[in-house]
Amino acid sequence: MRKIICKFKSLWLGSMVSARFRYVNVAFFVLAALVMTLVMMATLRGVTNQISEDYASHHATSVAGHFSAYLMREIGVLENLSHSSAIIEWFSDEDNPAKKSAAFEDLLSAMDTLSSDNFYIVTGREHREYSFVNGDSIDRLQSADTLDPNRQSDIWYFECLDSEMRYVLKVDIDKLMQKKCVWINYKVYKDGEVIGVVCTGMEFANIVAEILSRYDNSKIRTLIVSEKGYISMDSALLGDERFLRYSFESRLDDEFTDVKLVAAVRRHLGRINGNFGMSVNPTVLELSDKPYRFATIAPIAATTWSVVTLYDSSSLFSAARLLPLFIAFILLFVIFTLVADVISYRLIFTPLDHLVDSLAKMKSDHEVKIFGLERKDEFGILSNTINDLFDEGHHDALTGIYNRRFMEASLRHMISLLSRSGSHLSVLMMDIDFFKKYNDTYGHNMGDDCLAKVAEALAKSITRTDDFVARYGGEEFIVVLPNTDESGARLMADKMLDAVRQLKIPHSQNAAAEYVTVSVGGATGVVTFSQRWNDYVKLADEALYKSKHNGRNQYTWLGL
């Protein structure tokens, strides 16, 4: 592991900044994409759940509201009927034909308003039961039986009498039609005493069909649960004849195993105290047991019943609906990252690469121009600063020509290159004659001015790109002439001697002439790998010594 880390560190430190930037950019992009994907998935799940919860809550409220409205419409008719003076009078004197006829008219009127088409009427004193179906004549309104509290089929009536509420809802089988109905048993009072009950049965299948037809219920299961926890209606059993035509009773605890759902229903039922008010505040649960994902519990106003609805994932808001938006967002992020990478690379690293390349080329060719000198941005500032530092580091401050450091580096490089082809190299070393006496006579300021003028004259004598003049130190100058044999070098020496003479700088202490002159020593050889840069300089220095010894203002040549 340590070797891998060391190798990675070596590759990292050895790579270009632009490459490192790409590595970091790619790593950051992958990390950001991963984090963004995780955040988006979590957000997507949260949004999906919230939308699903809102939908489930709205659906439960709507179902409970429609069921309540359906019942309230029927209850309102029975309430008006229970307050009818004709009904009250007939219940008080049920054998009176005139009172019965008046009550019959009110029953016919109520029948036109009800969604059901039957009545059951029980008078309070004798517990006589009358059945009345839409279309019957008054002659059919006859007592069919006397209800017995010990008979199972008649218990509904006595439970209604014992109830503290004005009406009681019950799901039971219609004895005439043999169909399951939702019964509304409404008490009739006179002077505060119950004198009978009027009830009507709404066919269960019709109620459910009307309420649930407003929704797509293929993936939704709707239950009506009584205050005791019994399932009075189950939309999943609407096609089951046993459920619709015969007695069918099941507790919600026995039907479902989801602990959260069962516990929530129990808490809800435990808070029931009389009929629910008109405000519907459903409870929304996220379930753990499949196939259902969410469940709602909503009270039905004006009843003791509640709607329990279960939703599978396909019935709710699916995350797949937001998937195109998620993909589009990721694509935009990728495009933004790529564009930002390209722009940053072109704005920063492309000019940086050009700058580095130009600096690298300057090692072999001092005439190469640094990239970006004309720019006005940060790269222009950097290029010009490097150029100024380069000039300061490679040029003599007084004369403006190259300095000894540049000469040594360039000479080494030239020997390396010329040795491959076996080319000639010539080096001239020059010295201003009697320069110490010039300074003593004219002063150092004039001496500096003299050095500058001589350097300028020598530099102007150079015509080839690879040739150059450098100040070696004090009043000494070096001229490097690559690919130049002895004859060519002698021509250059003559040219430079004459250039200095033409300056005609007065020098009264010069024994060689009335003006400033120079002495030249030259060295020429065929370059080989074994040679060093100072081999040529030493030989040129020896030749210079001989020129001085022979009277100055001349050149002497030695071969390597």
Number of domains: 2
The helix-and-strand class reads: alpha+beta
**DSSP summary, beta strand count:** 16
Helix content: 40-55%
Supply Rg: 57 Å
CATH third-level topology of the largest domain: Beta-Lactamase
CATH class descriptor name of the largest domain: Alpha Beta
Give the terminus-to-terminus CA distance. Answer: 57 Å
Main sheet specs: 6 strands, antiparallel
Shape: rod-shaped
State which percent range the strand residues make up: 15-25%
Number of helical elements = 16
CATH superfamily of the largest domain: PAS domain
Major sheet strand order: 3-2-1-6-5-4
User: What is the CATH-assigned architecture of the largest domain?
Assistant: 2-Layer Sandwich
> What is the mean pLDDT?
82
List the uncertain runs. Answer: none
Chart the SSEs and their pairings.
Blueprint: H1 2-14, H2 17-82, H3 85-92, H4 97-113, E1 118-123, E2 128-133, E3 143-146, H5 155-162, E4 167-173, E5 180-190, E6 193-203, H6 204-212, E7 220-225, E8 231-234, H7 241-245, H8 252-255, H9 259-270, E9 283-286, E10 292-299, E11 306-312, H10 323-361, H11 378-394, H12 404-421, E12 424-432, H13 435-442, H14 444-460, E13 468-473, E14 476-482, H15 486-501, E15 518-526, H16 533-549, E16 555-559
Parallel strand pairs: 15-16
Antiparallel strand pairs: 1-2, 1-6, 2-3, 4-5, 5-6, 7-8, 7-11, 9-10, 10-11, 12-14, 12-15, 13-14
